[in-house]
Design a protein that fits this description.
Oligomer: homodimer
Domain Transketolase-like pyrimidine-binding (chains A, B): 378-561
Binding site for Mg(2+) (chains A, B): 181, 211, 213
Strand order of the largest sheet of chain A: 1-7-8-4-3-2
CATH class of the largest domain in chain A: Alpha Beta
Distance between the termini of chain A: 60 Å
Number of strands of chain A: 22
Mean pLDDT of chain A: 95
GO cellular component, one term (chains A, B): cytosol
Strand content of chain A: 5-15%
Structural class of chain A: alpha/beta
Subunit structure (chains A, B): Homodimer.
Radius of gyration of chain A: 28 Å
Active site (chains A, B): 445
Shape of chain A: globular
CATH architecture of the largest domain in chain A: 3-Layer(aba) Sandwich
Chain lengths: 709, 709
């Protein structure tokens, strides 16, 4: 269903379009031809990759980088640069090739040729990766980039509202995000789109490479909605460009209008032809495979290049992109001068901003964490509030949000201001403004995690995003959490209601298997503290982990506060909680089930069996300790090690000989009853261990097998 | 932002509304008052639960069950009943209480009073659960119910197109789905909504309990989009009911119009007041807690009930709902008569339909699986096609779909017909009709899994849904997969590209930690076959597992076909692949990494170390075997057991002493190079094992620790 040409709600936009001369148009023709031939060559080189999208989007790239975006290849880390995000990450050659043409020094033609090569040192992986210069976020899993872009645009809005002062427009960059059909079908993209409209992020532009082709053929096989009307209903400006494959002028005008949009994010629906110039132009076959030698030759001929030559980029094309390299670098210098005068005029703010640009927290942050906690039973979600709220209140880097669980997750603090469009007050009486640091994500866990990645990726350490929801719903958020860990982003997830202690909400809300995912996820710390003291330790670890993401997993229900718990030992992953000479049993207590380990140890003692206890909040941290430390904590050779946790046991076999664990989904019962129902009770546990000790006496082989008791 | 009253695209709907008399209106008043007081009482009884939504939705329930829906409490499993799905599952008391009032025998008043009680035998868990009579699907995780409803409506469309014949409108039920604000914000809901519009499921009605309140307060804090316009843009009819709390007549009219909608699904935007009648009416406080004794008394008084009495349901209210119990049962009898004559008139179809109503496959299904496979190297995704395609082609129960990866997942078969609205042909040239059994889900993995749950839940075994995508993107789908496993639904997920062998697409596409999730997930079989033969075994297991979900996990790359592999042993989870007397080492080969285990065994042999090999496609199936069998396969006491798998090792510690595994995210390299880069190479593995054997000689304690080599 080809939508008609529309310009929806566009009258408020003041166009500052470039007037491109005839020379420009000639240049464009050469540039577009060169670019498309280059893409075809690169994909053919190692006979694999995604050529079609990149070829179709060429004119959009010219409009973006030549005429619109604010950046300097000599200063790729410039704080106030425009951010570009390729949500349709499989078209990465689009970005790599433009980085090369624009003069990013690391991206040589030889580097480009490593795309899909066996070289482990390539800057051109199959999807863009954040660790490489010029790439803002890693993309590939579809829809993520849109949410990341929303986070980036929020970061700008927030920092601008916090630091800009009259005459000092220090932070005013725009976020540009490319998307294909796919990201607009994915739930995470749709969630993020709703939020961007709600927040009126007028510094966000989403450019739709509308080639109407997906892997299965015409996009119409699975999608016939009216995307323009849908975006408008979601609070976006909509601009349509009919010939997005070639019409650099119209695209440039649309981008300029979008950048200057007064009150909404803008969606630019650019109609393009996938694989334009190839024999499979406009077809799904152009999406994800090399064209073949024959067609590559035809493409060369069609675009006026020698069919036998490869990787030919005329100097004129380089000149076209690089002629303003100097002036782009000058803009950065001018911004530095502006920042200097700002810091003089507003010295306190200036110091703070400079610190944040460096990605640092105020030096006193550790002192903000309470030194002690109430000794009465406390739900660890409340403990998380006791630890996080003062940090959030006093440290400007914190932006704390929730997927609509404010009353449950205890993450708001007295005097918090919501991150909202200030215009919302008059529309529907909702308070807040862009300087606010408390984020209502709505019931959108996936977008929450992925937007948080964007907030964190804006500039390392400038913003520490904290998300919060029930632990079970971090399964919805999991692809976002994964992308944060993969990109080494410092994002802190506060997950509450983390076991069957959640109770009446039942098996749909009781995580059984989810910890297994997060304990196996590389570069992610899944920390399950047993009380307030360990929550303080967990937050300290999370804040010192500048290159990884953390989940702090807390209870719904009240937990006893243990005299043996120790915040400073959380960093070791596990530690001796209660030592005992000549112990026969080591009990591993974890999170909210520590209380059962303690009860069981005491009951074993009454039955003449000495039991020691270790607290084990984080497997990954423990793995990083020396073998000597690990052995001294576990004492596996001398004791029967039994872990007590109301999750599936998977993974504990590394540390324990047996488990008190969950073998099924949970059950809707009050928390205490749910625990009892599944055998989480000191006496029951102790009995099982006694029986198992007897069985081992009789049959030594048992200790070489892991047993779920 | 209160939307104005609209009736969008409604002119095609022929209204067959009930004309309710004055008596009815008086009845309604009593019924609504009784219902609301009952809800307040039930939540107060154990001082917990969700009262507000249920109270606000009372009039919708009356309109649905009294005037609109087709069902019989005496025949709760009637095949052609209307399906009702409560996507906002926390309002479960709404459904439980109506089931009671309507005369579902199991749902006594005493049963209702077990809500939030410590009784493990309650039919009233904190969210609706499919195993209880009258509940079609388990809901709670938000957005799932909408996708389930889409699956249910598809099932009807498909079965009707397949079996109905002139004069025999055997299958013509409607699917009614309640949703709150939350499900409409969740990505999975939005994905499913797009698909329902695309497929023109005019037998689907989504009723929006629009109380504009979420946990965080006004829904406006996180959502200000124009939902009516958005739904219309997504291809839905939109009807708005202004007084959804009380106006039974308007709601009934809207439902009737929706049921008779000619070509689109219908969205009914019902404005209601959460917790109506309570002191916190219209406030988030009415959402998830008891009102307190004081307010409960006030509610009683306000609604004309004795403030001290509890659980008072006047006979007149029972009469109101139950007076047509007999005629409802008669309708079922009439349908059975119709089915009998259908079976006479169309005997072949009738036999098939009866078999499917019983949830059975054709008796010859095992013969449809190929007896042998090509011996040349074959990607196991292709093997999955070789096994699944003939089944899908010949067995009508199969409905196979993909999240836009048809060219990659090999799940389509010659002559397959797409499930599509037949009108799409004229709109945009897309072929297909509702009898089609190949489903293009678009790039919507989460909705795919959750819609598949709806297809499976329509009636056990009638439809066997098969989904397909890259394994990595089953992380997007995970909440849906979980809900399938939790509900014991037979859904088969074909996951391809399942390791670092995926190659150039890089770490975003290489699952490292995901198997840990699915191996820990209760009631889910995660099967990783090593070649075509084991794929055949995996599919056989999946088809015999009528009460669980299965993921069959396959490779992108070609795999050698092993003479030792055995389809019949897959059911045991693991089996001896290559036995060796006096072996020092047992190698566990898994899925596409079996080839490295074989190479390593051969290299060990060359170095004088005897190594046996076991194939280990499924941990959960292995756990179900006897201890004797498990010991005989693993031989842990006599041999060093080493698992070879390109995933995080977590969980393998139960079966192995050491692993060749992944300790980080993957890398973008051609598949073979990615394996080499991470040490997956027979020689390298063999060297590591030899070194480890030496270390064990020197230090026995090593065998009591799990080592990542």
């Amino acid at each position: 269903m080809a939508p008609s040409v529309t310009l929806v709600d566009f009258d408020t936009v003041k166009s500052k379009s470039h007037n491109l001369s005839l020379v420009d148009h000639e240049d464009h023709d050469l540039v577009l031809r060169t670019f498309r031939v280059l893409i075809a060559d690169l994909v053919q080189h190692f006979n694999g990759g995604h050529p079609g999208g990149a070829m179709g989007m060429a004119a959009i790239g010219v409009a973006l980088w030549r005429y619109t975006m604010k950046y300097s290849p000599d200063h790729p880390e410039w704080f106030n640069r425009d951010r570009f995000i390729l949500s349709n990450g499989h078209t990465c050659l689009f970005q790599y090739s433009f980085l090369h043409l624009l003069g990013y020094k690391h991206m040589t033609l030889d580097q480009l040729k490593t795309y899909h090569s066996p070289s482990p040192d390539s800057f051109c992986p199959g999807h863009p990766e954040r660790e490489h210069t010029g790439i803002e976020v890693t993309t590939g899993p579809l829809g993520q980039g849109i949410a990341n872009a929303v986070g980036m645009a929020m970061a700008t809005k927030h920092l601008a509202a916090t630091y800009n002062r009259p005459g000092f427009d220090i932070i005013n960059n725009t976020t540009w995000c490319m998307t294909g059909d796919a990201c607009l079908q994915e739930g995470v993209g749709l969630e993020a789109i709703s939020l961007a409209g709600h927040w009126k992020l007028n510094n966000l532009v989403l450019i739709f490479d509308n080639n109407n082709v997906t892997c299965d053929g015409s996009a119409d096989v699975a999608n016939t909605e009216d995307i323009n009307a849908k975006m408008a209903a979601s609070g976006w400006n909509v601009i349509e460009v009919l010939d997005g494959s070639n019409d650099v002028q119209s695209i440039t005008n649309a981008l300029a209008a979008a950048r200057d949009s007064s009150e909404k994010p803008t969606f630019i629906n650019c109609h393009t032809v996938i694989g334009i110039g190839s024999a499979v132009a406009g077809d799904a076959k152009a999406h994800g495979a090399a064209f073949g030698e024959e067609d590559v030759k035809n493409i060369h001929q069609k675009f006026g290049f020698d069919p036998e030559e490869r990787f030919n980029v005329p100097d004129k094309v380089y000149d076209f992109f690089r002629k303003d390299l100097r002036s782009r670098a000058d803009s950065v210098d001018q911004w530095e001068v502006l920042l200097d005068s700002y810091c003089k005029a507003h010295s306190e703010l200036g110091d703070e901003l400079r610190q944040r640009i460096k990605g640092e927290l105020p030096s006193n942050w550790e002192n903000v964490i309470p030194k002690s906690f109430p000794t009465s039973p406390t739900a660890s979600r409340k403990s998380a509030g006791l630890v996080c709220n003062p940090l959030a209140k006093t440290i400007p880097n914190f932006m704390v949000g929730t997927a609509d669980l404010s009353p449950s997750v205890h993450m708001s603090w007295p005097g918090k201001v919501d991150f909202q469009s200030p215009t919302l007050k008059t529309v529907c009486g909702i308070n807040g403004n862009y300087s606010g640091r408390y984020i209502h994500y709505g019931i959108r866990e996936h977008a929450m995690a992925s937007i948080a990645n964007g907030l964190a990726a804006f500039n390392r350490g400038t913003i520490i995003p904290v998300t919060s929801s029930f632990f079970m719903f971090y399964l919805y958020a999991a692809p976002g959490v994964r992308m944060g860990a993969l990109q080494e982003l410092q994002v802190i997830h506060i997950a509450t209601h983390d076991s069957i202690g959640t109770g009446e909400d039942g098996p749909t809300h009781q995580p059984i298997e989810l910890a297994a995912l997060y304990r196996a996820m590389p570069n992610l710390l899944y920390i399950r503290p047993c009380d307030s003291e360990e929550v303080a330790g967990a937050m300290t670890v999370a804040l010192k982990s500048k290159h990884r993401s953390t989940i702090i997993s807390t209870s719904r229900q009240n937990l006893p506060q243990h005299v043996e718990s120790n915040r400073y030992s959380v960093r070791y992953g596990a530690y001796v909680f209660r030592e005992k000479e000549d112990a026969a049993v080591t009990l591993i207590g974890v999170g909210s089930e520590m209380c059962f380990a303690v009860e069981a140890a005491e009951d074993l003692e009454r039955n003449g069996v000495k039991a020691r206890i270790i607290s084990f909040p984080c497997q990954r941290l423990f793995e990083e300790q020396s073998r000597e430390y690990r052995r001294s904590v576990l004492r596996r050779v001398e004791t029967l090690v039994v872990v007590v946790e109301a999750y599936a046991a998977n993974g504990w076999e590394r540390y324990a000989d047996a488990s008190i664990s969950m073998k099924s989904f949970g059950k809707s019962l009050p928390g205490k009853d749910a625990y009892k129902y599944f055998g989480f009770d000191g006496k029951v546990i102790s009995c099982k261990i006694l029986a198992h000790l007897d069985a081992i006496e009789q049959q030594r082989a048992l200790k070489s097998e892991f047993i779920e008791l």
